[in-house]
Amino acid sequence: MLELLVEAALRSIVLGAVAGLGLILARTRNLQVQMTAWTVVLLVSLAMPALTPWMKVTIPIYEHPARLVKITWTNVAEAGGFSEKASKIPAQAAAPGPLVAAAASPEASTPQQPDVGTAVLAYLPSLDGRLLATGIYLFVASVMLLRLLIGMILMWRVVRAARPARDSWAAGANVRVSDVVLVPVTFASTILLPSSSSAWTARKRRAVLLHERSHVENGDFYVLLLATINRAVFWFNPFAWWLFIRLADLAEAVSDDAALAGLSDPRRYADILVEVADNAQRLPAGLAMARPSTVRRRVERILAATAVPARMGWRRRLLIATTLVPLAALSAGSVARSAAPAQTRPLVPAAPPMTGYVMDSARLDRYVGQFEINVTMVLTVTREGQELFVQSTGGPRLRLSAVRDHEFVDELGEVNVTFVVNGDGPATEVILREPNTGSRHGPRTEAAMAAEIAATFQRRTAAAPDRFRDQTPMPGGKTALRGIIEDLRSGVPNTETMSPQLTEKLRRQLPQLQATLRGWGAVDSIFFRGVGPGGYDIYGVKFANGSAEFRIDVAPGGRIDDVNFNPRGDGTLGGVADCALEPALKPARDTAPIRLSLINHSGAEMHAFLLDGAGRRVGRRTLENDTSTFVWTSIARPLIVTDQSEQCRQIVLPGEATRFHIIEASGANAVRRITPLVGSDEALQRHIDSVRHGLPDYDRMTPVVAAATRQLLTHTQAILAKLGAVRAMSFRGVSPSGNDIYTVQFDNGWAEWQIGLVENGRIASLVLGPQY
Question: Would you place residue 358 in the very low, low, confident or very high pLDDT band (cuts 50, 70, 90)?
C-alpha cells in the first residue's frame, strides 16, 4: 500500500510542477482559470492510486537473449492439504488434501515455548520497518480524517441550530443566522451570518452575500473538502499541503472579484473585509470570509486592481479542464515492455522410457481399477493389451511403463505410480508422486463412489470460472463453515450435511481436528476473503486463541463437499534467534498451531528439527535446496535449522514474520526486495496469452510448473475466457516467499498473480488467486 501511495504522491508532484509551469509560461492571470486548473490537479491527485494501474501501456518488443536472474522463490500453497514438502507450483494445482498433516510427529500436539528473555532477544531483530512505517502512516492519516469528520459534524449541528433569514435581502440563497459564528461562513450550500449582521448596513450585507454566494456557486466548499481529504491521505507529501493553501487562497480571491463586480467600490469593500477580519474566529469546518493571515494580501490586491475580471462560465471551465486531461493521463501512465508474441507449439510427448521391464496381462489386471486420491480426484487405471494407462479426474490420459514390480512411470518420466498389493490379489492402494504435488495416497474405491467424486469435480469445474470472476460467496457458506467448526469441536460432525467423501475424510482425522479446534477456543469472527481459482470459498476465521484460513466447497443445494484449513498462529510476530540460545529453549505446551513454509536457498540440503518438552531435537525434516517445505508446528515451538552434519545454522521462532522463511547461504535473513525482477512482467503477460490460446511454452518453465500447467490447462483456460483480455497489469510488491505480485485487470474482472523466475528467465513459480 505504501509503495502505491508514495508513487502516487511523486506523480502528483510532477503533475503539479508541469501544470504550474504551464500557467507561468501562458502568463495566466485570470484567477478562475487558475482555480479550474488546480482543481483538476487535485482531482487527479486523489484518483492517482486508482488511475496508475489503469494507465499502463504495454509495448511489444522483440525478445533479446535471456538474462540470468537468480532469486529466492517458492509457492504459497492454495489448496488446503498440508504435506511436508510442497513444490513450486500454481496454488490452484495442489489438490485438496487432509486437514491435518499426516506426517506430524506425536510431539507436534505438545508444543513448547521459549522463556520470555529468549523470545524478546529473538523478536527484536525481526521487526519489519515497512510494518512500522505503515502503522505510522495509518495513525496520522486516521487522526487527520477523524478530525475532519468531527469538525463536519460539529459545523452541521451549528447549521441545524441556526435561524433561517427570511428577509427580502436573503432571497435566492440559503442564509441562516447563528449566535455561534462571529464571521460570515459558507458550509456546503448554506451561508451562515453572525447575529450581529442585523445591525449591518445594506451595503455591507450586500458585499458579504456577494462574496459568500460566489463560494456556493463555484462549489468552493466541496473543492476544499476534497483538498483536505487529499492532505490527510497524502500528509507526507508537501505538495498536498501547498495545494490546499493555494486552492483556499484562489477561492477567496475569486469570491472577492465577484463582490467587487457587484459593488464597484474597491476601497469600501476593502474596509468591509478588514471589519470582518477583526472578529475572525477558528471554526471546525466551513469557509470563513476572512482569515487574518490572508487579509493583508487580499486588501493589497483589491486596492491595486484596475479592473474586475469577467465572470467565467461553466462551459469555458469545462473546456480548460478538458485540455488538462492529456497531462493528467501522462502523469498517471507508465510504459511497460512486453516480448513479442512467441511462436508456441503443442507439447510432443516423449517416447516411453526404455526400461525393458515387461509384465503379462494377468499381472497388469491387478492394477486396473479406480483409486480415491481426495474428495475431488479419482485415479482411473485401465489396460489395453500389454499397456497400462492412468488418468486423474479432469487430467490427461497417460501411458505407463513399468520400472520394477508394482512401480510405473509416465511417458514423460514425471509421474510415478506405485501400487500397494497384498499377496496375489488386486492392488488395494496407489501412491501417486508428481513433481508439483509430492506423494499422495489413494485407496481403491467402488464405481459408485468414483462417479460421485467425478460429479463433484465436474460441478466445481463448471462453476469455478464464473465464481472466480464474480468473487461472491456461495449462499449459506459462512453458516455452514461455522456449523462444521462447532460440530468438529464437539466431536460429532453432522454427516447429513456432508458428501460421503468428506464424511470419510473427517472420520479418519476427527481426533486431531477435535483437539486443534478445542485449543483454538470459541469463534470470534468469520469473514469472507474471496473465491479461489478452484471455485471454493476462502474465509478467515478468528478464534479466541488463534486464527486460520479455511477453504470450503458448498454445493448449490447446501451440501458441503470439502473443507480444509491453514493455521496462521495467534498474531505473535516470530523471528530468528541465534543458535547459542538453543540450550535455553524449553518449548511450552498448548499454544496456537501454525504452518510454516521453509524455503531453502542455501545451495545445499538442510534439515529442520522440532524441540520436545525437554528441549531435545525431534521430528527431523529434510529441506531440499530450492524447495519449499511445509512444517506444522505451534507458536511456542521453535525449529532448529541445521546443515547436513546437523550443526545448527539458525533457530526459527514461529510467527507472522516466519510463516514464509527463506534460508540463505550465509545464514543471514534474506534482504526483502521492493522492486520487480527483470522480465517478470513480460513473462507473466506471455504466459497468460499462451495459456489463453491453449499453447503454453513449457520450455520456459521448470518441470514442476510445466507439470502443473499441463494438468490445469483446460481449467485455467476457462477462467481466462471468463475474465477476458488483459487491459492493464501493475506491480504490487514482493511476497514473503520472494515472488513478484501483480494485479492484473481484465475486461471482466481482476486477479492477482504471483510469479517467480530462475536462471534463463524460466518460470519457477506461479500463483493465481483473487485480489483481496
Answer: low
Is the distance from CB of 231 to CB of 237 less than 8 angstroms?
Answer: no
Query: Could you tell me if residue 211 is inside a domain?
Result: yes
In this prediction the pTM is 0.51
* CATH number where 456 lies: 3.10.450
**538 and 581 part of one domain:** no
The H-assigned helical ranges of 219-291 are: 220-233, 238-263, 266-277
Could you tell me the three cell numbers for 482? 461455522
Among 203, 206, 261, CA closest to 31: 261
Q: Give the residue from 618, 636, 664 where a domain finishes.
A: 664
Taking a C-beta distance cutoff of 8 angstroms, is the pair 573, 614 a contact?
Answer: no
- Can you tell me the distance from the alpha carbon of 740 to that of 72, in angstroms, rounded to the nearest whole number? 11
Domain count, the chain: 5
Q: Residue 434 sits in a domain of what CATH number?
A: 2.40.128.50
Question: Do the domain assignments include residue 553?
Answer: yes
For residues 556 and 644, membership in a common domain is answered with no
* Whether 240 and 142 share a structural domain: yes
* Residue that terminates a domain, selected from 444, 475, 498: 444
Candidates 291, 292, 301, 296; CA nearest to 266 is 301
Clarify whether residues 615 and 752 are in a common domain: no
The DSSP output letter for 670 is P
Sign for the CA dihedral angle at 298, 302, 306, 309 comes to: positive
DSSP state of 23: H
Q: Is 626 left (phi over 0), alpha (psi -120 to 50) or beta?
A: left
Cell numbers for 508: 479418519
Place of cell 505503515: 134
Query: At 371, which helix (H) or strand (E)?
Result: strand 369-374
Containing structural domain, residue 406: 361-444
The helix/strand/coil state of 481 is: helix
Q: H or E segment at 706?
A: helix 703-711
Asked whether the beta carbons of 754 and 744 are under 8 A apart, the reply is: no
Please check whether residue 11 lies inside any domain of the structure. Answer: no
Amino acid (1-letter code) at residue 249: D
Q: How far does Cα 422 stand from its chain's mean position?
A: 49
Please check whether residues 173 and 277 belong to one and the same domain. Answer: yes
Spell out where 506-605 has E strands.
Answer: 523-531, 537-543, 546-554, 560-567, 575-577, 593-601
- Cell 506444522 locates to 632
Residues 52 and 44: beta-carbon distance below 8 Å: no
Question: Is residue 317 assigned to a domain?
Answer: no
Instruction: State whether residue 176 is helix, strand or coil.
Output: strand
Query: Which segments within 405-491 are labelled E, that is strand?
Result: 407-410, 416-421, 427-434, 438-443
- Say whether both 219 and 250 belong to one domain: yes
Q: What count of other Cβ atoms lies within 10 Å of the Cβ of residue 587?
A: 23
Amino acid at 360: D
Amino acid at 343: Q
Q: Read off the pLDDT band of 683 (50, 70, 90).
A: very high
What 3-state DSSP class applies to 425? Answer: coil
- Give the residue from 417, 352, 347, 435 showing the smallest Cα distance to 387: 352
Strand order in the sheet with 617-623: 575-577, 648-653, 639-642, 606-611, 617-623
80: left (phi over 0), alpha (psi -120 to 50) or beta: alpha
Assess whether 623 and 579 both reside in one domain.
yes
Question: Is the domain of 259 the same as that of 224?
Answer: yes
What digits encode the pLDDT tens for the residues 128-183? 566 788 888 889 989 999 999 998 998 899 888 888 888 877 777 888 988 888 88
Residue whose entry in the numeric block shows the C-alpha cell 486523489: 46
pLDDT at 86: 38
